[in-house]
Design a protein that fits this description.
Blueprint: H1 2-21, H2 35-45, H3 54-67, H4 70-82, H5 88-101, E1 110-112, H6 120-130, E2 137-142, E3 152-159, E4 162-169, E5 173-174, E6 177-178, H7 208-214, H8 216-229, H9 232-238, H10 249-258, E7 265-269, H11 276-286, E8 291-298, E9 301-310, E10 313-323, H12 324-330
Antiparallel strand pairs: 1-2, 2-3, 3-4, 5-6, 7-8, 8-9, 9-10
Helix pairs in contact: 1-2, 3-4, 3-5, 4-5, 7-8, 8-9, 8-10
Length: 351
């Protein structure tokens, strides 16, 4: 539209100058601007009335975050960045981490939702804000790491002939339900065709076991996701060898306060940082492939997990909460570098 306005302004100005030379003459039909040409120019800049390319917009946002291109990122996703409690650089960092964890664009599984897929209460909220679904805004489904829990919903809006990512919805409450999408049967989480935690791991399938084989970090992320989405089967699968009962309620609260699993401060403690006697004890009990994971709840409190490889996949064997001083004194040696920058004042306080 901007181009057509400039052209029209130029035509009007030209007409004014022409009028100054011969005020007494009325413009003839032959000297008037050509309406068909103007109409054709307007049609070339007019929005088609439907959002297209929404999936690619989400991928472009991820790519910009992954490459640290803040200018492009904010052009695409300024609305989303402004909707979070984080700084733009932190938001980009979280998306870049998720992008890398999923193996790049090929691992980001997106699906543009149809009107029929959306739960009625969620569709009503979308249309109340943006108007008829698909004309100015659409929902893009991003499936979770294990592909069997409730997916995220990206809102893509058409503005000035370009797509903009407005926000990311993790859950909306309708009574006791947390869901965006219709479920085939009561109590079943919407699933992407061909992708299930119990699937056989074929070429087009990503099973929970495949995720857990990837890294201990992936296992912890999948555990928090399962807690958030109330996926009892996945949660119990990951913790089936734990020596103590791990409750999912506090983990779900942690993710909701962090905004997403990408907002959690999770790190794997290098074995060279673990105190020698403790490292030997862990290796003897859990095997040389054990992993010590920390999820920092705040600057002086942490959740600790020990994971062990069973048939090639990482499972949670033990969990404990600990304050910072206890962690530094008992678990790690002087080689461990405690990164205070992850608790800057502008970061979300997860208490």
């Amino acid at each position: 539209m901007r181009t057509s306005k400039v052209c029209l302004s130029f035509i009007l100005i030209a007409g004014l100058f022409a009028g100054c030379g011969s005020k007494e003459k009325a413009p003839s039909e032959s000297s008037a601007p050509n309406p068909p040409a103007q109409e054709a120019a307007a049609q070339t800049t007019k929005d088609p009335g439907v959002v297209t390319g929404a999936r690619e917009t989400i991928l472009d946002m991820y790519r910009a975050a992954s490459t640290g291109n803040q200018e492009t990122f904010l052009k695409i996703a300024e609305g989303y960045a402004n909707s979070t409690a984080e700084s733009p650089s932190e938001t980009m960092g979280n998306l870049a981490e998720l992008f890398e964890m999923k193996g790049g664009a090929e691992g980001i599984t997106l699906e543009e939702a149809t009107k029929e897929q959306l739960a009625p209460f969620y569709l009503a909220r979308i249309e109340e804000q943006f108007g008829p679904y698909g004309e100015k805004a659409v929902v893009v489904i991003e499936w979770s790491l294990s592909h069997d829990t409730e997916p995220m919903a990206w809102i893509v809006e058409r503005r000035d002939q370009e797509n903009r990512v407005i926000r990311r919805d993790l859950d909306l409450e309708e009574g006791s339900k947390f869901t965006f999408f219709e479920r085939k049967e009561t109590g079943q989480t919407a699933q992407q065709p061909g992708k299930s935690a119990n699937s056989g791991g074929g070429q087009d399938q990503v099973s929970l076991t495949d995720i857990m084989r990837g890294s201990p970090y992936n296992t912890i992320v999948a555990l928090y996701e399962a807690a958030l989405n109330g996926d009892k089967d996945v949660f119990e699968n990951i913790t089936q060898f734990s020596t103590e009962k791990i409750h999912s309620s506090w983990m779900a609260e942690r993710v909701m306060k962090a905004g997403s699993t990408g907002g959690l401060r999770i790190e794997e403690i290098d074995k060279a940082w673990i105190k020698a006697d403790l490292r030997d004890k862990m290796a003897k009990e859990y095997g040389e492939d054990f992993a010590l994971m920390v999820e920092w709840e705040k600057d002086d409190y942490a959740q600790l997990f020990i994971l062990k490889k069973v048939n090639g996949a990482y499972y949670v064997m033990w969990h404990e909460d600990e304050n910072k001083d206890g962690f530094l004194d008992y678990y790690v040696n002087e080689k461990y570098e405690y990164d205070m920058s992850i608790f800057d004042e502008e970061n979300v306080d997860y208490e």
